Amino acid sequence: MPIKRSVNDQSKPALLIMTATITPPAGAVDLHRVDPQLRLQDYLEALAFYLDPAVKFIDRIVFVENSGADLAPLKALCTPNISKKVEFLSFFGLDYPSHYNRGYGEFKLLDFAFSKSRLLNELSENEKWWKVTGRLKVSNIDKMVRTAPDSYGLYADFRPKRSWVDVRLLSFSRSGYRDLMLGLYLEFASIKIEDVFFKRFANQSIDSNGEPSDHLIVREFRSVPRFEGFGGWMNTDYSSRKFRFIYTLRGL
């Protein structure tokens, strides 16, 4: 008889980190959505979505960008009537060879946010936060936060049949990220991040030094995230009928 998994309906609103590269470097590997204006529009639409009061389980947002781009158009969305706390961080973090895999830049960016973000540093050691690829909207983000387990260091969508992890949406505790992930981006230079994640965390908790860790890793989302927007690789439309069918099928 299947075990009924509890649902954490008492979850509090969470912090969301949106990762962004408005102006990607020339020759970036596996990247087809490269037009800065197009990418900026993606980020504007996604940020507007998460700022909407209808999204009740995200009450703090850190928008962190690593190409040193002007964030004024994004900041303009944060009008005085916005009740959510929003922090913007911009730096130039693309000082590495363009052929490095995209996970290198994204998690180098997250390490920067971990050390520099005021909102992230206000979290307690076991308090949870979410990371999303900043151009994407997760239309059911409230449900993702509300149904998350009470305790974990890393919460992610592992796909054992493909030996792969979906890194578009992840959640960590503050201490979980520090112990499991900090500095790990150096391993993503020549190996796809999805593969590194799976090999490292599929069977046990290993910290960023390769040693056994006490952090709990939950390897299956309790709800299927429903992405909207365009993927950077091949300009995939995640809002298409095909993907809506896939989300429904996975939910079953």
Description:
By secondary structure, the chain is α/β, with parallel strands linked by helices. Helices cover 29% and strands 19% of the residues. The chain has eight helices and nine strands. It has helices spanning 36-51, 72-75, 102-116, 118-121, 141-146, 174-180, 193-201, 241-251; strands at 14-20, 58-65, 85-90, 128-133, 137-138, 154-159, 164-173, 217-218, 227-228. The strands form two sheets. The chain has a seven-stranded mixed sheet, with helices on both faces. The protein has a two-stranded antiparallel sheet with strand order 5-9. A hairpin with a 4-residue loop joins β6 (154-159) and β7. It starts with 13 loop residues before the first strand and ends with a helix. Residues 1-10 have low confidence and may be disordered.
Short précis:
It is built from 8 helices and 9 strands. By secondary structure, the chain is of the alpha/beta class. Strand 6 and strand 7 form a beta hairpin.
